[in-house]
Design goal:
alpha+beta; Arc Repressor Mutant, subunit A; 3 domains; five-stranded mixed beta sheet; three-stranded antiparallel beta sheet; 16 helices; 44% helix
């Protein structure tokens, strides 16, 4: 079993999914989105025919929502899934924030008051920038919130009060979740855990229970229970003494000779606790030096072979790569084609 080859197929990096951005996000359950521009490309290269403009349009109209969820970080979540996912993980993440909220002197009463003010400010359908949300709190006589605004907004997202709106220029906005995503599904806890396990392993398998536990930010016991209640929707294989899970089915396209420029925090890396199947442990610190940062990665034949960065100029993007070791001419050519794909996504020429 070639773990990298199957993951490339399951993650639609071997070829993009012929679907809408919202359907791609739903396949994954959720996708890491803490770096806004990087996340556009993470979703875009998995969506057939996508450009940066079409991905932003999906966010603007609300089929793809950006909100705090798993591990207390920003995620893309499909509109139809956001309520049951927040029902499952929101309160748990908030409990994990309790000590930090106390340090910031944000008690339940203050946070409830902030939520009420946000509802009033947004109930007419408005989408407000971060600065405008801070202004709403000040007009509501809640002073001194600006230094703590990030935590207040995150709490309101995890509580299911607000969610992303469309960008206004380069500024993100916030809207009422109830306006952007009417509730369409109610899942009991075991149903939600099973659904989450299926979404995770269909899009990221083969993966272990520990990988799944890392991604959902819950206990290993919860992860194993989720696998159990998913039942026959999942199958397992043992590789070198480790049990890997995925949904039934085989890869349908060869990935030999393919290269991808993955953005920072891409699910191909961030979706797993153990990344050794695709990233040689000798080079981990070249990609993940600490502080929760995962750099943009160059992937060839399923393996991370270096990092990359972009430089924008008028009408052009320059892609610079830093390989871990010497690359063959054929590999360099495939990387150049990947850079051309990225430039096309941005609507720019490249070098």
């Amino acid at each position: 079993m070639s773990i990298p080859a199957i993951r490339l197929n399951r993650q639609f990096l071997a070829w993009p999914m012929n679907a809408s951005p919202g359907e791609v996000v739903a396949w994954f359950g959720a996708m890491q989105a803490q770096d806004y521009l990087a996340a556009l490309w993470a979703l875009g290269q998995r969506t057939a025919g996508a450009t940066e403009t079409t991905i932003e349009a999906a966010i603007a109209e609300g089929s793809v929502l950006r909100t705090h969820a798993f591990r207390g970080t920003w995620q893309y979540i499909a509109r139809e899934d956001v309520h049951w996912i927040l029902d499952l993980v929101g309160a748990r993440v908030i409990r994990g924030m309790a000590s930090r909220l106390r340090e910031l002197e944000l008690d339940d009463r203050a946070l409830r008051r902030c939520g009420e003010i946000f509802v009033r400010a947004l109930e007419d359908g408005s989408q407000l920038t971060r600065e405008e949300m801070a202004g709403a709190l000040e007009r509501g006589r809640l002073k001194g919130m600006r230094p703590r605004l990030m935590h207040v907004l995150g709490h309101a997202e995890l509580s299911g009060i607000i969610v992303s709106g469309g960008r206004r220029g380069k500024q993100p906005t916030f809207a009422l979740l109830a306006h952007r995503a009417p509730r369409v599904r109610n899942l009991e806890r075991d149903e939600a855990l099973a659904e989450l396990a299926i979404r995770y392993f269909q899009s990221r398998g083969p993966a272990t229970a520990k990988d799944f536990r890392w991604w959902i930010g819950m206990s290993l016991g919860d992860a194993r229970h989720a696998i159990e209640v998913a039942g026959k929707s999942l199958e397992s294989r043992v590789v070198q003494g480790e049990t890997y899970w995925m949904t039934p089915g085989k890869p349908t396209r060869s990935v030999k000779g393919g290269a991808r420029l993955l953005p920072a925090f891409d699910e191909y890396l961030v979706g797993y606790a153990d990344r050794s199947a695709v990233l040689d442990p000798r080079f981990i610190k070249r990609v993940n030096a600490g502080g929760g940062i995962l750099k943009p990665a160059v992937v060839v034949d399923g393996q991370v072979v270096g990092t990359w960065m972009r430089t924008l100029a008028k009408g052009r993007v320059t892609v610079s790569t830093s390989a871990f070791s010497a690359l063959s001419r054929s590999h360099s050519e495939t990387i150049d084609r990947a850079a051309a794909d990225y430039a096309k996504f941005l609507g720019l020429s490249h070098r």
